[in-house]
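Researcher: Quick one. two chains, 460 residues in total.
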Amino acid sequence: MAHEHKLEIFRGLLKFKSNTQKIWGVLIFLSIVTAVEVVLGIYKPESLMKHVLGMKGLNWIFIILTIVKAYYITWDFMHMRDETKGLRRAVVWTTIFLILYLVFILLQEGGYVFNVYKDGFIKRDF
Amino acid sequence: MSTTVVNAEAEGKTWGGGNQPLKASYGKMMMWFFIVSDALTFSGFLAAYGFSRFKFIDSWPIADEVFTHVPFLHGQELPMIYVAFMTFILIMSSVTMVLAVDAGHHMNKAKVTIYMFLTIIGGLIFVGSQAWEWGTFIKGDFGAVQTKGGNILQFGHYVDVDGEKEFERVALRDFVVSDPHADRTQQERKNGLWFVSEGTLPPYTMEEVVHGLETHENVLVRTQIINDEGHKTVLSREESLRQIKEYGKLAVEGANLHVNEYGSPLFADFFFFITGFHGFHVFSGVVINIIIFFNVILGTYERRKSYEMVEKVGLYWHFVDLVWVFVFTFFYLV
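Model:
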């Protein structure tokens, strides 16, 4: 049976001997990332509260770490790493493009509505 | 006879349905495309949450102040600890699932059984925790007053912590005394006017709240507006009394779809809807896992000589974990 697994993560920096070992390795990595998120979330270091590109620096860190976690769950737990390029792109590119588009319009619109409430004369009727 | 001939001819024919460019079985591929559509549903909800949050960016509740409870540890403020535990449980059950898939590749029935069982247990712990989290959120802790405009006014006082003045929340029940004579019975369907009922009565009337605030000199009102330091604005004593007397409409405890003691009702609506929808996914995932678990025990896949079914539910289960990673970030962290 052909169940070939690609056993290296971090672009070949870390290579595991078996698929089981890789699973535990990824678990350790995901746990560390979650722990970092929780610690940052509890202590909220003052230095990271500055605004970067319209959002708190800390929030950017959270979002990037979330995407990192999502990548490893999809690539190693869901075995996306072992699928063909075609399937991978059909699933991942479609989703990412549509989500980015949706998030962009909705957040843009939300910010606009906030400004109308704040600066405009309209208060509650739209 | 005729079918075998057709099959033999189709094989190797690139344009005759004989090649598999994605090298995945039909079932697995369809599971992937279902996951794509479900991911878009979830991102629609989360983006809508983002919309509402950007709309009320200066008055949205601070998650650290909302989710501070841990079971069996009463009265301690431990923001995020319990959610972090839930996240870990879900990741852990993802790991046992992927181990089950791996054992399936090696046709190891005993190991698949054990790992599937552990996955189910993890899922149940998660759903239970979610229910507890909902219960705590619905019950609320400090209580607040809703204004005529639909905003929330919370209460607190300044205490000295290591020589510095810090604002600490005060619960309604700590300074408001309900007047036993003014107690009104809830109208139920069975008495008075027939088949007419009313919603739950507020824990305190506005007169009682005003009286409690007047007799407790140190209690101040905190509004929803977030100031430059990222804290909610605390009003002066005079302004506190004025706001409560002039705008106070209803004493609220806890959260539901109409009122929310933590701030904007939208926050509660989205919390119930998104975590509820996710919890429903976990629940159905557990049910599907149980079905597959029994199939494994019965030896269905042993006879089929392939554990691909375990792999397919595995995909769904990991997807549920994946969604939680995002819900965790956007509800509890950001």
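Confidence is low (pLDDT under 50) at residues 1-6 of chain B.
Researcher: Thanks, that's what I needed.
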